[in-house]
């Protein structure tokens, strides 16, 4: 860019965005350096979640053995189907469409309309939104038992990546998007991560990056106490991360005083989805990784529990401090620039472009500007901020609810609210069948084609316990062989499965796990005799029953009743 062009752009931007003279101290960051570091942050996330993915919740309360740590393969970088990454793009899309002053209610509507699979605080927060419980109540402990879970922490990376050197913007974005599903320590975990990213654009000193994150959350919170503990234990044991791991496990995993709002799904198990302990493992990776991306990801992964989310956050923060251009070749050589992140309009190049545009808006909104240096290069001039943390709150002693509900008009904007159904699509696919108790994850409905078949109906369970039910009445003729013929499939992800249950007149007559063991190329052909009901009118029920909570959609290639 020439000096003249840069000057013209600078004047135009300054005149249009700055109403009063700038005061105070500023930090400067070349635009090109910002873009390189921001891209590095995204790729670091992809590397961490891809490398740690096979270990997720496979090792709880124990260190992942060194021999069980997966070997890095360059193709692991292409993580376009990971909730650890694509959920935050819903928030970016809201900001892209409506700007930074978008209301929290609109943010909630956009999140409610998302169709990807969710778990824990994300799942229950979105369910609350779909039922008309507007934010901030959607993330309040009165309406969710998951508000200290890790969820906003794993998707807060965006907030720092578009806020270089602006921790107060990362805090503000947490108040807008983190409150859709989290509260207290669950919210602070995301603000902590966002503020670390914001600082990583200006600092490679890991302890200073962590201190910047710590300054962005209430000092009296248990989350802040946890971070301070890990920093102190690292100083006491600088060469023994496993000893520090043991201290973390004793206090933040096994001490009930630090699990006062435990995720109900983790009760009776060894797993811990709490934001604090998993945040500790992010800090562990950063401190003991010593600026090495491999070591950072490996240590965060080997700490266990949510061992793909944690290395994703740690890897992203470190990679943002290093910059994309300084990442090892093995992490960048196989990137697919055309790969589209699931349920989003973004591939990596368009994601980088959108973040760059939002960062520019953020700088002016926070009182900064853009200028040119002596070489004609664009430079971000960013006001130095003293962090202003959110108020102190605790999920086990929550404050009052806001009595916030969506209006009838707003509920009409939530297109996947309970009560809306798949009737039209089901009638086209299998006339006479009706659906109930269906969820809206994973884009249910009638698809023109999926996994080699045309005209495929997709359903999804309502929640982790309630299956989607297809029903119809049918007359079974006498003196004929009558078969219920089904072609059913499951998602292509290796861990996807669901349980097919068939009931006649309320009585279960068939059960089959629909997974890789029963299918050929993802499809299974099933024939169920109905001859025992000859001469009767029966009510048939086909249940898409969840068998866990991992890609539980049912794919129906055929539903028919044949009499021979």
Give the class from helix and strand content and strand pairing: alpha+beta
Number of strands: 13
Strand content: 15-25%
The CATH class of the largest domain turns out to be: Mainly Alpha
Structural features, described:
The chain has helices at residues 3-17, 31-52, 83-98, 104-112, 120-130, 151-154, 157-161, 167-177, 185-200, 206-214, 222-236, 241-252, 275-289, 293-302, 309-322, 348-365, 408-413, 423-429, and strands at 26-30, 369-372, 378-383, 434-436, 445-450, 453-459, 468-475, 482-489, 498-504, 507-514, 523-529, 537-545, 554-563. The chain is an alpha+beta fold and 564 residues long. Strand 2 (369-372) and strand 3 (378-383) form a beta hairpin. The termini are far apart. The protein is built from 18 helices and 13 strands. Mean pLDDT is 92; it is low at 7-22. Helices cover 38% and strands 16% of the residues. The protein has two domains: 3-383, ADP-ribosylglycohydrolase fold, CATH 1.10.4080; 423-563, Galactose-binding domain-like (Jelly Rolls), CATH 2.60.120.
Essential attributes:
alpha+beta, ADP-ribosylglycohydrolase fold, Jelly Rolls, 2 domains, five-stranded antiparallel β-sheet, 18 helices
């Amino acid at each position: 860019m020439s000096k003249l062009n840069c000057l013209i752009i600078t004047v135009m931007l300054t005149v249009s965005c700055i109403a009063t003279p700038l005061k105070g101290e500023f930090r400067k960051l070349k635009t090109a350096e910002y873009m390189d570091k921001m891209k590095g942050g995204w790729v670091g996330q992809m590397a961490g979640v891809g490398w740690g993915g096979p270990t997720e919740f496979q090792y709880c309360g124990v260190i992942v053995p060194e021999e069980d740590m997966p070997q890095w393969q360059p193709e692991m970088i292409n993580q376009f189907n990971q909730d650890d990454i694509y959920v935050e793009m819903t928030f970016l899309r809201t900001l892209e469409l409506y700007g930074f002053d978008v209301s929290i209610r609109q943010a909630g509507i956009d999140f409610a309309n998302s169709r990807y699979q969710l778990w824990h605080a994300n799942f229950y927060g979105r369910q609350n939104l779909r039922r008309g419980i507007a934010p901030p109540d959607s993330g309040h402990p009165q309406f969710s038992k998951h508000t200290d879970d890790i969820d906003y922490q794993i998707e807060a990376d965006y907030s720092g990546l578009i806020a270089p050197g602006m921790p107060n913007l990362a805090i503000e974005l947490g108040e807008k998007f983190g409150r859709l599903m989290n509260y207290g320590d669950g919210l602070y975990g995301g603000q902590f991560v966002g503020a670390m990213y914001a600082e990583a654009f200006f600092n490679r000193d890991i302890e200073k990056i962590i201190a910047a994150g710590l300054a962005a959350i209430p000092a009296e919170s248990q989350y802040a106490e946890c971070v301070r503990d890990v920093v102190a234990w690292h100083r006491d044991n600088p060469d023994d991360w496993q000893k520090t791991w043991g201290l973390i496990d004793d206090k933040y995993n096994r001490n009930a005083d630090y699990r006062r709002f435990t995720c109900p799904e983790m009760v009776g198990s060894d797993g811990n989805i709490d934001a604090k302990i998993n945040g500790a493992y992010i800090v562990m990776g950063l401190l003991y990784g010593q600026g090495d991306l491999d070591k950072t990801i490996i240590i965060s992964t080997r700490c266990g529990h949510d061992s793909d989310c944690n290395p994703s956050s740690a890897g992203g923060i470190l990679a943002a401090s290093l910059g994309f251009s300084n990442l090892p070749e093995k992490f960048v050589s196989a990137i697919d620039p055309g790969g589209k992140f699931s349920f989003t309009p973004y591939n990596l190049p368009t994601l980088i472009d959108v973040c760059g545009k939002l960062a520019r808006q953020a700088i002016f909104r926070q009182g900064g500007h853009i200028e040119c240096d002596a070489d004609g290069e664009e430079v971000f001039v960013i006001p130095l901020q003293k962090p202003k943390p959110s108020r102190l709150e605790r999920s086990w002693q929550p404050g009052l609810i806001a009595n916030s509900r969506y209006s009838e008009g707003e509920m009409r904007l939530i297109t996947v609210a309970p009560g809306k159904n798949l009737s039209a699509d089901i009638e086209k696919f299998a006339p006479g069948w009706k659906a109930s108790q269906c969820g809206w994850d994973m884009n249910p409905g009638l698809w023109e084609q999926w996994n080699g078949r045309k005209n495929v109906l997709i359903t999804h369970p309502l929640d982790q316990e309630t299956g989607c039910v297809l029903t119809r009445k049918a007359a079974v003729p006498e003196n004929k062989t009558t078969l219920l013929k089904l072609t059913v499939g499951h998602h292509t992800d290796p861990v996807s499965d669901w349980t097919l249950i068939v009931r006649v007149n309320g009585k279960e007559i068939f059960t089959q796990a629909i997974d890789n063991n029963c299918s050929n190329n993802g499809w299974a052909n099933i024939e169920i005799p109905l001859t025992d009901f000859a001469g009767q009118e029966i009510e048939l029920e086909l249940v898409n029953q969840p068998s866990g909570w991992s890609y539980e959609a049912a794919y129906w290639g055929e539903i028919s009743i044949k009499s021979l």
